[in-house]
Design a protein that fits this description.
Radius of gyration: 18 Å
Strand order of the largest sheet: 3-2-1-4-7-5-8
Order of helices and strands: EHEHEHEHEEHEHHEEHHHH
Distance between the termini: 32 Å
Shape: globular
Number of helices: 11
Number of strands: 9
Helix content: 40-55%
Structural class: alpha/beta
Strand content: 15-25%
């Protein structure tokens, strides 16, 4: 349920969004279902990253708070949304996915134990193919072993601030750096990263639709080799892969 204007929500869900008018409504539908299954209060913040479509209008019509962030860097967009958050817990999810109905209950329960500094719900692809299965198999053991996962990422707002938020000097891998910072912060207070079960996000496959289902195996090794030879090429790669206007 949306919080009253004078109430402090338990959870602030932050959605970075650039030209997401097509896919944002299905995410918001899934958020409505998760809200209905949760006893606490949730505010939804759409951090609009200079969209040129109806993203902001759709978000407002659906009862979201909209925060404008002009800089085209995902870390800046996440931080911009977090700066406006009022919740005790801040959570982040991508605009092109769908969250599980139990998301808010699961992450609230994880934080409430007092043993967890941050977590990620994990996710599964919205469709499957041999290439996507191979990609999942490649990354799943790393996520399970480290707690560095995708899906809905969450922590207490105080811990977000203590860890320094997302590193705005990064155009990509800001999510990994953020969880690393939270893990270091958690160790000082006897808390750990967690990957709670039962609320996996449905992850969009649009990058696979564009680049091919096997591109982590056919394209990324060449990209990695290029970056080793020329670290400056990372900016060009990031803008091509994550920041294309037509992505």
């Amino acid at each position: 349920m949306p919080p009253a204007d004078d109430a402090t929500p338990r959870i602030s869900l932050i959605i970075p969004a650039f030209n997401e008018a097509e896919l944002l409504p299905r995410l918001l539908d899934s958020i409505d279902a998760a809200r209905a299954a949760y006893a606490g209060t949730v505010e939804v913040i759409v951090a609009d990253n200079a969209s040129t479509d109806a993203t902001a209008e759709i978000a407002r019509q659906r009862g979201c708070r909209v925060v404008a962030v002009e800089r085209r860097a995902i870390a800046s967009v996440r931080n911009g949304g977090a700066a406006a958050a009022r919740g005790e817990i801040v959570a982040f999810t991508d605009a092109d996915g769908r969250i599980h109905p139990r998301t808010f209950a699961v992450l609230d329960a994880a934080i409430a134990t007092g043993r967890i500094v941050a977590g990620a719900t994990g996710g599964h692809f919205e469709r499957w193919s041999p290439g996507l299965v191979a990609t999942f198999v490649l990354f799943a053991p790393i996520a399970m072993a480290t707690g560095f996962d995708t899906g809905v990422v969450f922590c207490r707002r105080d811990d977000f601030v203590a860890a320094g938020g997302y590193d705005e000097s990064r155009l990509f891998a800001e999510d990994v750096a953020f969880l690393l910072a939270l893990r270091r912060h958690g160790k000082s207070t006897g808390r750990r990263l967690a990957r709670p079960w039962g609320a996996r996000t449905t992850i969009s496959t649009r990058k696979f639709d564009r680049w091919g289902d096997w591109h982590f195996f056919t394209r990324m090794p060449a990209v990695a080799w290029r970056l080793l030879q020329d670290p400056q090429a990372a900016t060009d790669f990031a803008r091509e892969y994550w920041y294309r206007p037509d992505r």
